[in-house]
Design goal:
heterodimer, A: 110 residues, mainly beta, Immunoglobulin-like, six-stranded mixed sheet, B: 114 residues, four-stranded antiparallel sheet, 49% strand
Chain lengths: 110, 114
């Protein structure tokens, strides 16, 4: 079951914050966040596991609300290098495949 | 740092021809995947492979597709009779000891079917 991401696209000025949401209609085991720059492969950002804690590194963090079957990715003080398409991927149980959402295109401008 | 590699980076073929896309996953990983991404669209799951057999496959992965791990390092995707709509970027990925572990993607093979 494909997760739903919102917004579809967002434009930020450098230094602004953004939140990208990912929701599922089914119970989640884990949520994976990836960033893909144009013409490149998706790059793993972080994984949030059921029962786990909020994760983050540098100015990118994420939360996982198991009850609401949602995850949010927080980008603070955005940099030009944050531009790209952000995909969330969801896993419904320990051995089911990762299913990606349609992505959120983030553009950071100077 | 270990990485997933894929060859070729770009493959051009005629409709109806067979193509084999090759991947070398990270050496101690146990789970292997193929994904497809049509230009400008989302990454779509094709198949996962564990313990020398397919563990999951999507409806995209029909009889025209097959996967193989012919030796201890390579993981291949074969498309038997390519169609125009097979044109896409194909990504291989691998993950460690659990299916839900983070997946590391290769750089992709751009397949163009003429």
């Amino acid at each position: 079951q494909q997760p739903v991401q919102s917004p579809q696209a967002v434009i930020l000025r450098e230094g602004e914050d953004a939140v990208i949401n990912c929701s599922s209609s089914k119970a989640l085991y884990s949520v994976h966040w990836y960033r893909q720059k144009h013409g490149e492969a998706p790059v793993f950002l972080m994984i949030l596991l059921k029962g786990g804690e909020q994760k983050g590194h540098d100015k990118i963090s994420a939360s996982f609300n198991e009850k609401k079957q949602q995850s949010s990715l927080y980008l603070t003080a955005s940099q030009l290098s944050y531009s790209g398409t952000y995909f969330c991927g969801t896993v419904n149980s320990g051995n089911t495949p990762l299913v990606f959402g349609k992505g959120t295109r983030l553009s950071v401008i100077a | 740092e270990p990485e997933v590699t894929q060859t070729p980076s770009h493959q051009v073929t005629q409709m109806g021809q067979e193509v084999i896309l090759r991947c070398v996953p990270i050496s101690n990983h146990l789970y292997f995947y193929w994904y497809r991404q049509i230009l400008g669209q989302k990454v779509e799951f094709l198949v996962s492979f564990y313990n020398n057999e397919i563990s999951e496959k999507s409806e995209i992965f029909d009889d025209q597709f097959s996967v193989e791990r012919p030796d201890g390092s390579n993981f291949t995707l074969k498309i038997r009779s390519t169609k125009l709509e097979d044109s896409a970027m194909y990504f291989c990925a691998s993950s460690g000891t659990r299916a839900a572990d983070e997946q590391f993607f290769g750089p992709g093979t751009r397949l163009t079917v003429l």
